[in-house]
Amino acid sequence: MSALPPISNSGLLRWAWRQLTSMKTALILLFLLALASIPGSLLPQRGIDPIKVRAYITENPTWGPILDRLGFFDGYSSPWFSAVYLLLFVSLIGCVLPRVGVHYRAMRSAPPRAPRMLQRMAGTRSLEVTGSTDEVLLTAQASLRAARWRVVTGPQEDPSWVAAEKGYLRETGNLIFHLSLLVVLVSIAVGGLFGWKGNVIVREGSGFSNTLTQYDAWGGGRFVNAENLAPFSFTLDKFTADFERGTVQRGAPRAFEAEVSFRPDPSAAVQHALIEVNEPLVIDGAKVFLVGHGYAPRIKVTDKTGAVVFDDAVPFLPQDGNFTSTGVVKIPDSTPALGIQGLFLPTAALDAVRGPHSIFPSPDDPALFMSAWKGDLGLDSGTPQSVYRLVTDKMEQIGLEQLKPGESWTLPDGSGTVRFEGYERWASFQIAADPGKEFALFAAAAAILGLMMSLFIRRRRVWVKVLERDGVTVVQLAGIMRTSTFEDDDIGVLAEDLDLVEHALAAAGLVRAEAPPEEES
């Protein structure tokens, strides 16, 4: 077998471009993009809920850090997702744009003339007519034009046929669908480059200002300057949650509402708004979404001298649908340094199997279970620590206790007193600005419209040809479906198209009536 001739660099580039811009490659890349989107659906994402990301990594010390290094918690901004995204974008451009020019020229061109052997086409009909050739052709033209067909007749030297074509919008819809995908990709890119989003937990009665230091997690596009964020602020006045109390779907969420007071800028008057699920607050191009909520037990700690070393409400993270919540209090200023691991139960229950847990998400019977530790909190080691995790490697456990609101616990070794003052609610907000979302919504609607056009519109051609046979004028009718696959109902569609012309000729009295059959004697 002889060796293939060497290919030049330019030839290699042309081959690579043809492979990349083929429809087969575009479909493969679209499939890969769908696969690359799966981690963003199955795993918590740092841009949406960084609290869940930290909890997932903590609960999975082996796989969590590996997945984090691979970018699975920032799936939509990871290098592997971006690579597939950009390749699909280039492939679609190479596929679609040349087809736009081809389709434009096809729409401006006339339907092709009638084939010479029209009778060989499937479904051909022959009719004997009584009118002249001009009458037949004019009647056929009028009926087809009335049905919105593009019609052309033969030239002066050969005026015995009519050609008509319909269904150009099928390819138009196909191109609209693919162009809309391009617009969606561009809109996502614009949002990724110029958009930003962040998450913050706000307690009832507390406020938030739109500055970078106020966010628990924040991420912005490459061309976003965090110092130029809109100077709005808001205060969480009241948070209300309602849950189903009936026997059916007991504990299911029914309503979440956050009443806030906000200012678009420091000099503006205070305004009031109600934020609900899927009903965000819009301020200066940014949207404030309500994405979560929980409880913040208020804990007061005094040391052995009676001095107050801690007095604050600490957000606890829900662990289940009944809001069994965990949290940590770190008190480095006490002597010795104290750490408290807490379990807050809105409606407390205790059994031998599950231990302490909540049986309903509303605070019907709140309780706080605490484990107190003393020793080195590890805050001076230089290693970052999660505020929701207590490192007990160099600490000693000094006691366990259960408290109701208003109760106090004197630590066993005389290190001080812990008092459970009560609880507050907190709400988690995602604040985002996405300048490309309107274009993406419009493009998605256009893509659906284009897909429907390409699925339900059929492109087809019809020919009407007039012949003289033995002094009798004969009309031949034939049609063809311009699709890559020929379906069973296409035959019926072509039959209806030919019926249109035949009925028009019959209505004009141009079709020769068939002689009635002779009766047998």
Features of this protein?
single chain, 521 residues, alpha+beta, Alpha-D-Glucose-1,6-Bisphosphate, Chain A, domain 4, 7-stranded antiparallel sheet, 10 helices, disordered C terminus
In short:
The protein is an alpha+beta fold and about 525 residues long. It has helices at about 10-20, 25-35, 40, 50-60, 65-70, 80-110, 135-145, 170-195, 435-455, 490-505; strands at about 125-130, 150-155, 160-165, 195-205, 205-210, 215-220, 235-245, 255-265, 270-275, 280-285, 285-305, 310-315, 315-320, 325-330, 340-345, 350, 355-360, 365-375, 395-405, 410, 415-435, 460-470, 470-480.
Topology:
Blueprint: H1 9-20, H2 23-36, H3 38-42, H4 50-59, H5 63-69, H6 79-108, E1 125-129, H7 133-146, E2 150-153, E3 161-166, H8 168-194, E4 196-203, E5 207-209, E6 217-220, E7 233-243, E8 253-263, E9 271-276, E10 281-283, E11 286-303, E12 308-313, E13 317-318, E14 325-331, E15 338-345, E16 348-351, E17 355-358, E18 367-375, E19 395-403, E20 408-410, E21 416-433, H9 437-456, E22 460-469, E23 472-481, H10 488-507
Antiparallel strand pairs: 1-23, 2-3, 3-22, 4-6, 4-21, 5-7, 7-8, 8-9, 10-11, 11-12, 11-21, 13-14, 14-15, 15-18, 16-17, 18-19, 20-21, 22-23
